[in-house]
Write a structure and sequence with these properties.
It holds the Pfam family 7tm_1. The protein is mainly α. The protein is built from twelve helices and eight strands. The strands form four sheets. It has a two-stranded antiparallel ribbon.
Length: about 400
């Protein structure tokens, strides 16, 4: 019993240098903070424009949710473990950590795959793409998450297994088990085929056809072909953004896929632990690309974010109204009356004494309120007709007899 415990403890001790773990933890900290800020901002912007979200942008929101899930479930455990040079948490937490890493990673890849297919449909098959509605987008998003859940639940149900990473301070799929277990080997093959080769092929072919269609449309524009055969600027922008996100994501996950497949199918430990650690850094950086691309390069997202930031700064920097002494209030009232009387001569009336009086009164901020002082408010007046003469006076000055005319 004691020997088994020592073996388990030994599996969760870092196999790279302490300096390497400190660098790993520092990079994870930077990635975690940037990912949390970027994805939360993107989700806030998407919530603000939820009524005007396009169907293709549903996958962007779903991708941000999966990135946020990976950030909240992986980084809080990986960072302190790397700083302490060993896995700090119980073995069940290692299994949960591995499940979340596989599940949210596959969710992101599946969403990107469906997004590339939707872009191909809208650009290359506009007759069908124009019929793609938000309801279809929600169904595909739900299907993407269910597809990822099937492969994430596999190791927990005995099809494959979870275990510590070769570098010791994190957990994922046990990549060495397929050497001795055929069932684990079938899981790794299925995972590599249906969760990497097939999605990457769909993404590559979709954007290849899209780029060819864009090239053909540009040539058609130069030859003055009818507008029905042209690709709109919105479609071109969606294509560019989607290509950028997919390239970033595949660049992040390809090193880890290659390293893990080499470890699973090789007969010896030819992959050093530091290679897994570096590949894991690239994999976790995938949570940064989605908000970075969409918040910087997508005009409507950026415009809405700038507007909200300006409004927030205006509210936070709004100073309180200063208290004006009584003697100053009278002078300022007189200045305000004269200024408005000259400026708004068309809105003034002459009293019986021949002097002009504006229909405005000076209103000062009471103590403890915010805003600008010395603003003028309109004064309600009434025209009194008696016999052949008429005059105007303030409503507040009307007597009981005059109030019947209102």
């Amino acid at each position: 019993m004691g020997n088994a415990s020592e073996v388990v403890i030994g599996l969760y001790v870092s196999t790279i240098s302490k300096e390497g773990d400190y660098i790993l933890a520092s990079i994870y900290t930077i990635f975690g903070v940037m990912s949390l800020m970027g994805n939360s901002t993107l989700l806030f912007v998407a919530y603000r424009k939820k009524s005007s979200l396009k169907p293709a942008e549903f996958f962007v929101v779903s991708l941000s949710f999966s990135d946020m899930g990976m950030t909240l479930t992986l980084f809080p455990f990986a960072i302190p473990s790397a700083f302490n040079h060993r896995w700090l948490f119980p073995e069940p937490m290692c299994m949960i950590y591995a499940f979340c890493g596989v599940f949210f990673g596959l969710c992101s890849l599946t969403n990107l795959t469906v997004l590339s297919w939707v872009c191909w449909l809208k650009v290359c098959c506009p007759n069908y793409g124009s019929k793609f509605s938000p309801r279809h987008a929600r169904m595909l998003v739900l299907g993407s998450w269910c597809y990822a859940l099937i492969f994430a639940v596999g190791p927990a149900s005995g099809w494959g297994a979870f275990g510590p990473e070769p570098y010791g301070t994190a957990c994922c799929i046990n990549w060495h088990l397929p050497r001795t277990d055929l069932l684990a080997m079938s899981y790794i093959i299925s995972l590599f085929l249906f969760c990497y080769i097939v999605p990457c092929s769909i993404i590559f072919l979709s954007y290849l056809f899209i780029l060819l269609a864009v090239r053909g449309a540009r040539q058609a524009v130069q030859q003055h072909v009818s507008p029905q055969n042209k690709i709109t600027n919105t479609q071109t922008l969606i294509v560019k953004l989607s290509v950028a996100v997919c390239i970033g994501f595949l660049t992040a996950w390809t090193p880890y896929a290659l390293v893990s497949m080499l470890a699973a199918f090789s007969s010896t430990d030819v992959v050093p632990p530091i290679a897994f650690a570096v590949a894991a850094i690239f994999a976790k950086s995938s949570t940064l690309y989605n908000p970075l691309v969409y918040l910087i390069f997508k005009p409507n997202f950026r415009k809405l974010l700038c507007r909200d930031a300006t409004l927030c700064c205006h509210v936070m920097c709004h100073c309180e109204c200063p208290v004006v002494p009584d003697s100053t209030q009278k002078d300022s009232c007189e200045v305000s009356r004269r200024h408005q009387g000259l400026k708004e001569d068309g809105n003034s009336t002459r009293l019986s004494n021949g002097l002009q009086e504006t229909h405005s009164a000076c209103r000062h901020c009471p103590e403890g309120t915010t805003g600008r002082c010395l603003n003028a408010t309109p004064l309600r007046t009434a025209r009194i007709i008696a016999d052949s003469a008429n005059r105007e006076m303030a409503v507040s000055e009307l007597s009981n007899d005059h109030s019947d005319f209102l």
